[in-house]
Amino acid sequence: MLIYPEFQKEIQSKNLVHLVRSTKEITSLDLSKKEEKYVMSKLEDGNSCIVNSFGNVVAVFKFGKLTDSKDREAIRKFGDQVYNAVSAECKDLQVEGSSAEAVELLLEGISLSSYKFDKYLSDKKTAKLKAIYTSNAKVKIDQLIHVIDATCWARTLVNEPVSYLTAAKLSEEIINKCKDTGIKVEVFEKAKIESLKMGGLLAVNKGSIDPPTFNILEYKPAKAKNKKPIVLVGKGIVYDTGGLSLKPTANSMDLMKSDMAGAAAMAATIYAVAKLNLPLHIVTLIPATDNRPGGAAYAPGDVITMFNGTTVEVLNTDAEGRMVLADALSYSDKYKPELVIDAATLTGAAIRAIGEYATCMMGNAPQEEMDLLADAGFFTHDRVVQMPFWDEYKVEMKSKIADLKNLGGPNAGQITAGKFLEHFVSNPYVHLDIAGPSFTTAKDSYRGLGGTGSGVRLLVEYFKRKAK
Fold first, then answer.
1. What is the pTM of this model?
2. Residue 356's pLDDT band (boundaries 50, 70, 90)?
């Protein structure tokens, strides 16, 4: 789906969407008397109306305060309704409104709704809608396109099955996407990972027939505002069986191609930052492998020596995400970063705690960073909920035979996992458990079906604010 990157003062399409602040504006729109009367009657009972008149679509949405997260989200969701109404019949669409911000929200909703993962379908249904026009010259079309492109790339990575997206293929996809962006990509293959003694990543990979990779993406513009980089870390488990601690719940493996959603989010975020030319030095680290119960697989009871020398007693091989993340978090120390942020589909406890509507956020970073992330989350509706991060939770991760164990008690698993990871970070740290919002099993408005790209719009907005 294309957002047409030209501003036109004249109407280019007979299919119109009008964004208005009040019903008083309806009389100034280019509507017939019959359409005007119908729209006015509809807006008396609600805030939106879509009319298909002789093959031409006219849609009107009355929006509220754009400072309110619910009002902003309502416009995005109306974009999904508009897309569903016009995509099969209309080649183009005109979006008009005096508020550039409202127009941008609608375009965001329409464009994200247009995403479909149909690579493996023999009978592909191609939408007719190819272009959207707007005469509002304040709309930041190019910026919007980059964020949507990044979000949809993350979705595609998550939606790809492991039969295609092995760890090596993930590295290849990252290299190809980041060409000509200013991002330097370096990929460590197994021999290099072994020489670095990344014990967590190597242990999880032992049961696989495919080798692991460790990916380093660096964006360092000439006039970066931050003297020390911000390091992003993404969990890249391209498929998770649970290893020898095979997932016991029925159908629980069906969605495990999505266990690299953290890696997808962090790769897409640095890509968007580079495309937006934000003046920030950012490094992204992605440890990648699948987790399978092969003949050489690591086992419960094993003691693993991690990259930083910490020993970890393995109590459950399905707690593999924290094993690979720990090595990457330790590796981040070499950059002496001002902040480290990781994203991972880490725990079912995160879903049990707050459901599928937000990300569990926790960490030891200054509260102003946490607040900035929370504000960016409400702005984009890619929301976060801050969890407590008290040291008492770390006690549960102590082992009797090693420095740590990789499994805590039955309660607050999303927090004990975060405290485990904190051990491996020497700098201010934020942990984002995106297990809930990263994947849908039924279409959810503009978030779509399958991979949602959760975390991308949140972090890009956060970095836009940091850049200011």
1. 0.96
2. very high
